[in-house]
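Input/output pair, single chain:
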Amino acid sequence: MTLNKRYLRNVKSNISFYLSITLLTALGVCLHVAFDSSFGVQQESFQKLLSDSLPEDAEIMTMFPVDDIQDLENEYHVSMERQPYIDLDMQGTEAEVRVFAPGEKINLYQIQEGSDLKNEDDILLSGLFMERQGLSIGDTIELSGKTYHICGKVIKTDYLFCLKNISDTFSDGDRFGVGVVLNSAFSEYDSADQAVVYAVRYEDGADSVAFRKAVNEKFGILSYVDIGNNSRLQSPKDQFDELDYTVNIILPVSMIFMVLLIAVVLGRKIKNERKMIGVLHALGYKRYELALHYSVLGAIPGILGGILGILAAIPLIGPLSDMLIEDKMEVFYEVSHITPTACLVALILPTVCYTIAVFITALINMRGSAIDMIKGLSKNKKKRMGLRKAKMNFRTKYKLRAVFSHFPRTLLVILGIALGGTLVAFTFACVDSIDRYVDTSVKATGDYEYEYFLSSIKTGYPEKGSAVIAASFEVEDNPDLITLMGVDENKLIDVKNTSGEDLPLEEGKFYISEMSSYAYHVKEGDTITIRNNADLKEYEIHVDGILVNGSQSLLIASRKTVNSLLGMQEDAYTMVMSKEKIDYRDSELLREVSKTSLAEALDKTISQGMHDLLLPITIIAMVISVITTYLMVNILLTESSSVISMLKVLGYRNKEINRTVTYIYHALVPIGVALGVWFGLLMNKLNFETQAAKYNSYIENYVTPKSVIICAGITIISYIVSMFLLSSKVKKVEMVESLKNSQE
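Output:
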């Protein structure tokens, strides 16, 4: 007898199982290959971009012009370049374009498409801005009264994530873009309207601390942002970290789930074939040979699923890459192929996992002597539930036995229902939380609309708006920045705790925002150490309360308290809050923040992106739920064929048999739904809390009753679909089936 002849017969007799596992494997492999290939190409392109463009290690703004750059470079082993810019209004829109002259040794621009600058009326524009404004190469654009010819798309690595202000959270191509013009064209702009930053690159052996102190002593540092805190360059790196995390979790998690499914399904099949296995063992086949035979059955869906998944990933990789980057940053790469490494992993990992799982499962189920297996005896045979004397009808007794006598199968049904529900609930919770954050958190910080961070220190009170002392500080043992803000008692900013009570701006009292509380793991009563990013002086701040503010990284106190701490005049201020727009020149400002633009950017970049993900994630979740439930109930129907046959002999109709044998897991659906929603909310909460610093916002976990109902509905629909597919199984069982085995 040749065991190899059984493979084709086995696959034919269990075609639904192999199709289901192959489909699930293909789904996991497809996502893995698409994400991994996208990640690999992006990383490679990103490193090449950095190598070619020589991005800054730090950006400095000073109170006075730096007039001895060459001396600083020689003494402290740095490269330093003055890089002025000017913000110009786009005619007929609310958008602005920040125009630069070409850098010579730092932050070199790269042409993504089109041709380089030739004439004084030529301009290179950032691609995302052009796309959002409906512009093409060859078009003209009017900026602050002057017409330019668009000759190409440009990428500046210091604006790869195109933020107007480094402190902003999200790029907004509808309102802001970057342009480059010739030096001769840039020199025509009024120097009083220009803002100046100094880009710095540290060479090997450079003493960055000594350099910063020297610059601060001579020229007064208003702002110092190193590469770790520069969201314009750090955000792409964070994006790659997310992709890397996704790549490393998709396939392993899906393999764990699939191994459990295969172990249960093929484990039951091997148990049902113990008599035949016993005969083969008696004829001389060794246990490991029989286990290897069954292992091939596990390898089949691994190989087929891997191949199908790779083929499906080929057309998906481009759209997936665009979706990950679209509306977030300048596209600096093109993903046109899947990577060989991703394909090898996708083919080998499922096949190896399934083969090992089935081999171990087969050995476990082959315990005992050949005689015991032939007789159908088992050392671990479980007793049936003692329901003989229970006063309940036959249908109820059968369901209870089916559910509790095979608990691993029951748990997998619950897990399958819950897993699909978790994916849907997580996505809906993300959308609801962000929508609520946009509607409440950003707008609830106060009645002000604009924040103007000044490029020089003022005293007294401004003609318009409210005076605020504000400075950026580095947090000890953390790469992120926090803003120390001193405010007067005014109605423009809300200083309330999480219970809605006003926090008194008493002298010596400091309050930390919710976002910073989560980002830096600080609670009321703790002490946080901050360091001035200009003179590097450290301050220990006692936190007297948590301030309701999920959109900004803040420490707030009275203006007098902050000025006293920093050794400044009591009425000094560096920021103005206002309900109305105030006309400042670019040279007068470090940055300008608008709550409305922040809320709109949030809605476009995160909320809309999550809304776009709802449909594909819902489809994936439904496929998982349907297949899992189908497989588990299908095992039950296969093992209960003699019972179904006997019920037919006794006169039961197909609908009645389905209610008795097929529809036994109805009671588990609410459990699966509840677990799915709970796990989805938990994942969402952990995601926002652990990523508060990266999002530059604390987004509170929230889900609407409507979303919960939709999640439950999707899960229930998935279950109904699987039951519908299984209902025809009962029709195929013949009445004579009950006569085939005298023991049944």
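Residues 58-214 form one domain. The mean pLDDT is 79.
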